[in-house]
Design goal:
The protein is of the alpha/beta class. It is 36% helix and 27% strand. It has a domain of 132 residues: P-loop containing nucleotide triphosphate hydrolases (Rossmann fold, 3-Layer(aba) Sandwich), CATH 3.40.50. It has a 6-stranded mixed β-sheet with strand order 6-7-8-3-9-10, sandwiched between helices. It has a 4-stranded antiparallel β-sheet with strand order 2-1-4-5, with helices on one face. It is globular and about 45 Å long. It starts with 7 loop residues before the first strand and ends with a helix.
Length: 239
């Protein structure tokens, strides 16, 4: 049985989401396959964050279906989803500033597995975290804090890593660094859903993309194709 390789890790179908009694997402359908890097791009306020909050169980006002590893998860508790292997890196880097880097990372473990191989993996990806492992997390720069939140999510050895706007507030140099590390994750076989306003970086890194505007998907396809789409070039890439 080789079908598992291309079965969706995440499948969203006909999802309608309300937020503060207003419908913000209409009939959303997309999927992320095993080992795929998929991006959901679009302007701020298009419904990207609401979509991700709904997937991870933080927003109950939704109808439609969300399946994760073949199981219907719509409305499931975030903690249960985390234990099933769904890891979110939120846009607001929720670190524990007074705790050392290493303690922040260890909070990411989801079972009683030996943390050593997971730490080794995170430190290989983000060597700066190893250098600063005893420092309080609050003393890290914005870019380092972003690396820490990604690293903490990776400590759970997730089946799907969801990143909500990882480039927010980072200098262009750091954005490049963060995206290079995400590309490496892709090469390591990680399955990733990336929500991102930095369309150029997102499309350069991912296999496929969906464009979300005003709560609806207006385009989808291979990232390379979307990169050359006139609407996307004009709206997002400044051509």
């Amino acid at each position: 049985m080789h079908s598992d390789e291309h079965s969706p890790v995440l499948s969203v179908s006909g999802l309608n989401i309300s937020h503060a009694n207003l419908q913000v997402v209409w009939d959303l359908s997309f999927h992320v396959d095993q080992g795929e890097l998929v991006t959901l791009i679009g302007p701020n306020g298009a419904g990207k964050t609401t979509t991700v909050e709904t997937i991870v169980g933080l927003n109950k006002k939704a109808s439609g279906s969300i399946t994760f590893l073949g199981e219907d998860i719509l409305g499931m508790h975030p903690y249960n989803l985390f234990n099933k292997g769904l890891a979110l890196v939120p846009e607001k880097r929720e670190i524990f500033p007074k705790m050392p880097v290493i303690e922040n990372l260890l909070l990411g473990l989801r079972d009683n597995s030996d943390p050593a191989p997971r730490l080794k993996h995170v430190y290989k990806l983000f060597p700066i975290l190893k250098e600063r492992e005893r420092q309080k997390a609050g003393t890290l720069s914005g870019g380092e804090q972003q690396m820490l939140t990604i690293g903490r999510a990776l400590m759970s050895n997730p089946r799907l890593l969801i990143l909500d706007e990882p480039s927010t507030g980072l200098s262009p140099l750091l954005v490049g660094q963060v995206f290079r590390s995400l590309e490496q994750l892709g090469r390591d076989g990680m399955t990733v859903l990336l929500l991102e306003q930095n369309v150029r970086h997102a499309l350069a890194m991912c296999h496929r993309g969906y464009v979300l505007e005003n709560g609806r998907i207006v385009k989808e396809g291979e990232a390379k194709t979307l990169m050359h789409d006139p609407h996307i070039q004009k709206a997002y890439l400044g051509f």
